[in-house]
Design a protein that fits this description.
Sulfite Reductase Hemoprotein, domain 1, Sulfite Reductase Hemoprotein, domain 2, 5-stranded antiparallel β-sheet, 6-stranded antiparallel β-sheet, single chain, 3 domains, alpha+beta, 17 helices, globular
C-alpha cells in the first residue's frame, strides 16, 4: 500500500499554489474574447443587424425561415420575444426546452421613453393591436405597451406605422439600454423640482440604437425624475437621477447606480454626487460605459451592474466614473427629501398652468386595442392631445380644463380606467404570467383581477362598518408575479407574491405563491426603501389568495402600534405566526 493511500502528503515548505480566479469577462480587465456562446454571437453579428433580415427574409419566408440565433437572441434588440404556446402548464416551464415552450407568435414591446404619448401615437398603437395582435395590449411597469399574437409577416408594417408617428421598438429588449423611465408629470406638475424631458430626449435620441452601447453584459435600466414623489422607482434601476436642489448650484439630480431585483434583489446605491442637467447625458454615458467595460460577462446570472456595484462599493465606483469616464469630477450633493405624496399620480391634480392632469388605473395594466382607440377619442373630445404611461401600470391624461374634468373621469371609468379606484385596484400590479410568458409558472393577470374584485367586496364600507380599507395609512401594494424573476417587483411590495406550484393534497399540484411581506420604495411614500421579508413555510394557493390578503390586512389593523405604523414596519417586526 502506498504512502499516499493512507497518509496524504503534506509539505509545509511548499505551500499549495492558490487556484487562479476565473476571468469574469470584464473587457478592461480580461480582454474582449467571448467566454460563453451568448457573448460570441453578440460579437460576431450584433443584435441591431437583424432588422434587415426581418424585413428582407423572415417576413417573406415566415416563421420557419428564421435563424435560431436570431430568433432567440437578436430579435430582442428589436423588442420581439416568442410567446408561450397555449396549453402548456406551469409544471413544464422548467423541464421543456425553449423551442418546445414557444409559439410561432411574438410579444412585441413598443418603447415609450418617459411614458410620453400623443393621442395620434396612442391611436396608432391601438390600430396595430386591433389589426395585428388580436386586440391585446398591456401597459407595463416600465411605461411600455406590450402586444401579443404578432406574426413575423406583420412586423415590417407594424414598424412602418410606429415610425410614421415617432415610435419604435429599438432596444426594447436585449443586452442594451432599455426604455428610459421618466416622471409621468414631467413639465406639467406644479410641484416639480425640474423637468427631466430634455435629458431623457438627449439620451434617447443620441444613444438608443448606437452600436457603442448595443452590446452590454445584460439589460440596463435607466430612470430619471424631477418630481419630489420620486415616481420612477429609482432604487431598482441600474442608473437613476432623482431631482434635488443644490444649495449653491440650484436644481439638478442625485445620482444612484446598481439597482435591480430578479432572483437576487439589490437596491441602488447613492453615490453622493450632484449632476447638473447639462451633464446628465455625459454621466449616463459614463456609467453605461463602466457597465460595458467592467461588467461581468462570463456568467449571465452575474452580469447585471448590481453585482459590480456590490463588489466595488460606492466610493470606488464614483472614483472610476470621475477619473476614467468624465471630463471633470462631480460636486457632492444633497440627498432628496422623503416623498410626501405617492408616485402613481392617480386622481385629479392641478398642473402648473392651471389645467389638470388625471391619473387613472387600468386593472393590473390590462387594456386592449379597442380601449386605446376609445381612449384617444375620449381625450381629444375633452380638448387634450397628450397622455403618459407610468411605472405603476397607470395612465395619466394631461392638459384638461377644469370644467371638463368630471366628464373625463366618468368617460375613463366607462373604459375601465379608474381615477377614483378602490385601494386594492389602485395598488395591485401583475406581470404577464403564464398566459404569454415562457418563464411563468402560474397565471397572474386573471388571478390578480379576481382577487381585487373579491377584496373590494370584502372591504366594502356597507359590509364593514368601520371601512377597514380606509383605516390603512395608505393602500397596501399587492404585486403578483408568475415566476421568480420579479418583473412585478415582488420584493418591494407590501404583499409580494412569487408564483410557484404547490401540493394540492391529492398527489397533484395547484397554482400558488411564495409570500414576501413588508417591502417598498420611496415612491410608495416609505420612510426608506427596503425589500420584503420571506416568511418560512408560508405558501398561498391562488384560490386562497383573497382569504390570505384579508386575513393579514385585518391582523395588521388589529395589532399595529398606533395608526402611524406602516404595514412594512409591522410585518418586519411581527412574529411569524401573525403573518400566516
Amino acid at each position: 500500500m502506498t504512502e499516499t493511500a493512507t497518509h496524504p502528503r503534506t509539505d509545509s515548505a511548499r505551500p499549495a499554489r492558490p487556484r487562479a480566479a476565473k476571468p469574469n469577462g470584464q473587457w478592461k480587465v480580461d480582454g474582449t474574447a467571448p467566454l460563453n456562446p451568448n457573448e460570441a454571437w453578440k460579437q460576431e453579428d450584433g443584435g441591431l443587424s437583424v432588422r434587415e433580415r426581418i424585413e428582407s427574409i423572415y417576413a417573406a419566408g415566415g416563421f420557419d425561415s428564421i435563424d435560431p440565433t436570431d430568433l432567440h437572441g437578436r430579435f430582442r434588440w428589436w423588442g420581439l420575444y416568442t410567446q408561450r404556446k397555449p396549453g402548456i402548464d406551469g409544471g413544464k416551464t422548467a423541464t421543456l426546452e425553449p423551442h418546445e415552450l414557444e409559439d410561432r407568435y411574438f410579444m412585441m414591446r413598443v418603447r415609450i421613453d418617459g411614458g410620453a404619448l400623443t393621442t395620434e401615437q396612442l391611436r396608432v398603437i391601438g390600430g396595430i393591436s386591433r389589426d395585428f395582435a388580436r386586440g391585446t395590449a398591456d401597459i407595463t411597469d416600465r411605461q411600455n405597451i406590450q402586444l401579443h399574437w404578432v406574426e413575423i409577416e406583420s412586423v415590417p408594417e407594424i414598424w412602418r406605422r410606429l415610425e410614421a408617428v415617432g415610435l419604435h421598438t429599438t432596444e426594447a429588449c436585449g443586452d442594451v439600454p432599455r426604455v428610459i423611465l421618466g416622471s409621468p408629470v414631467a413639465g406639467i406638475a406644479a410641484d416639480e423640482i425640474l423637468d427631466p424631458t430634455p435629458q431623457i430626449r438627449e439620451i434617447a435620441d443620441r444613444y438608443i440604437g448606437d452600436e457603442s452601447f448595443a452590446n452590454l453584459p445584460r439589460k440596463y435600466k435607466t430612470a430619471i425624475t424631477g418630481h419630489p414623489s420620486q415616481d420612477v422607482v429609482h432604487e431598482i434601476n441600474d442608473f437613476a437621477l432623482v431631482g434635488v436642489v443644490h444649495p449653491e448650484l440650484g436644481p439638478g439630480y442625485d445620482l444612484w447606480v446598481g439597482g435591480g431585483l430578479s432572483t437576487s434583489a439589490h437596491l441602488a446605491v447613492r453615490l453622493g454626487a450632484f449632476v447638473e442637467p447639462s451633464r446628465a447625458a455625459e454621466v449616463w454615458v459614463g456609467v453605461t460605459s463602466i457597465f460595458r467595460d467592467y461588467g461581468y460577462r462570463r456568467l449571465r446570472n452575474r452580469a447585471r451592474l448590481k453585482y459590480l456595484v456590490a463588489d466595488w462599493g460606492a466610493e470606488k465606483f464614483r472614483h472610476v466614473l470621475e477619473t476614467e469616464y468624465l471630463a471633470s469630477p462631480l460636486p457632492d450633493g444633497p440627498a432628496a427629501a422623503k416623498p410626501a405624496t405617492p408616485g402613481d399620480h392617480v386622481g385629479v391634480h392641478r398642473q402648473k398652468d392651471g389645467r389638470f392632469y388625471i391619473g387613472a388605473t387600468p386593472t393590473v395594466g390590462r387594456v386592449s386595442g379597442q380601449t386605446l382607440l376609445a381612449l384617444a377619442d375620449l381625450i381629444e373630445a375633452h380638448g387634450s392631445a397628450r397622455l403618459r404611461t407610468t411605472p405603476h401600470q397607470k395612465i395619466v391624461v394631461l392638459d384638461v380644463e377644469e370644467d371638463r374634468v368630471d366628464s373625463l373621469v366618468a368617460g375613463l371609468e366607462e373604459l375601465g380606467l379608474y381615477a377614483n379606484p378602490s385601494p386594492w385596484r389602485r395598488s395591485t400590479i401583475a406581470c404577464t404570467g403564464i398566459e404569454f410568458c415562457k418563464l411563468a409558472i402560474v397565471d397572474t393577470k386573471d388571478t390578480a383581477t379576481a382577487a381585487i374584485d373579491e377584496l373590494e367586496q370584502r372591504f366594502a364600507p356597507e359590509k364593514d362598518g368601520d371601512d377597514a380599507a380606509n383605516r390603512l395609512l395608505r393602500p397596501l401594494t399587492l404585486h403578483v408575479n408568475g415566476c421568480p424573476n420579479s418583473c412585478a417587483r415582488i420584493q418591494t411590495a407590501d404583499i409580494g407574491l412569487k408564483g410557484q406550484l404547490l401540493p394540492d393534497g391529492d398527489g397533484g399540484q395547484t397554482p400558488g405563491f411564495q409570500v414576501h411581506l413588508g417591502g417598498g420604495l420611496a415612491s410608495d411614500s416609505r420612510e426608506e426603501a427596503g425589500t420584503g421579508r420571506t416568511v418560512r413555510g408560508l405558501k398561498v394557493t391562488a384560490e386562497d389568495l383573497p382569504d390570505y390578503v384579508e386575513r393579514v390586512t385585518r391582523r395588521y389593523l388589529a395589532e399595529r402600534a398606533g395608526e402611524e405604523q406602516t404595514f412594512a414596519e409591522w410585518a418586519h417586526a411581527a412574529d411569524e405566526e401573525a403573518l400566516q
